[in-house]
Amino acid sequence: MAPAASKLRAGAGVGALPQRALAQYLRLLRLYPVLTKAATSGILSALGNFLAQLIEKKREKENCSQKLDVSGPLRYAIYGFFFTGPLSHFFYLFMEHWIPSEVPWAGVKRLLLDRLLFAPAFLLLFFLIMNFLEDSEKGGSMEFTKQKFHTPDCIAEPCTNSRPEQCSEEFQVDIAVIQPLSAMLTASVTTQLHLQHHGLSSLRCANIQHFLIGRDTAAVAVQIRRSFWPALRMNWQVWTPAQFVNINYVPLQFRVLFANLVSLFWYIYLASLGK
């Protein structure tokens, strides 16, 4: 009888795990709403990108040596933690206060606000932040390579000449491609001073400044033109019914979590689109 009783207690303990996890989540949600939603957004966003890479790897069976990109889930985790979770939290609060449920056609008005204003802006922010993170990662690797070989004017390989300006053109930085607009330059300098005032490193400020003044502006513009409208159309198709349910039937404290679960599939689509 004792072994049977212990098995029953063990089974009951395992069955109670979801309840205890839910109770702990609700407790954290009550005590630290923004931080909890940011953490769940970061974790689920990274998981979505990881699953997207697995699907892509299975699709390309002939390239068995292809390795998973570790930096991909990291970028999605950063975006989910610092942008998706907090912005969604405050957007749903704003929507709840600005369009109360007592207002006529409140559900339709909330849905239109989300679909026509928040969705395009948030999607554009996604592409900009992802391009910035990828650009920063490449820029950091390039700086490390240049310092390693002590060739400040060469990009990828050590220069065999005594004068750096005589390096091969394929390893030279093409300064002519940097064509900053005056307004963007002013904004970048202002942003740099603001970030330095708040304690960010000079290297990170330089990365932000280079991104803002247009080091890769042409590439970013091409990427957005190629991907933004298809992604926005798919967003309207996938997220419109999901957000209708989320905004009108899901309790306020669970709306970010509900959107995160839908995002598992949405980020798989965005990741495959980026590739």
TrEMBL record:
<keyword id="KW-1133">Transmembrane helix</keyword>
<comment type="similarity">
    <text>Belongs to the peroxisomal membrane protein PXMP2/4 family.</text>
</comment>
<dbReference type="GO" id="GO:0005778">
    <property type="term" value="C:peroxisomal membrane"/>
</dbReference>
<feature type="transmembrane region" description="Helical">
    <location>
        <begin position="115"/>
        <end position="133"/>
    </location>
</feature>
<feature type="transmembrane region" description="Helical">
    <location>
        <begin position="76"/>
        <end position="95"/>
    </location>
</feature>
<dbReference type="Pfam" id="PF04117">
    <property type="entry name" value="Mpv17_PMP22"/>
</dbReference>
<dbReference type="InterPro" id="IPR007248">
    <property type="entry name" value="Mpv17_PMP22"/>
</dbReference>
<keyword id="KW-0812">Transmembrane</keyword>
<protein>
    <submittedName>
        <fullName>Peroxisomal membrane protein 2 isoform X1</fullName>
    </submittedName>
</protein>
<feature type="transmembrane region" description="Helical">
    <location>
        <begin position="252"/>
        <end position="269"/>
    </location>
</feature>
<keyword id="KW-0472">Membrane</keyword>
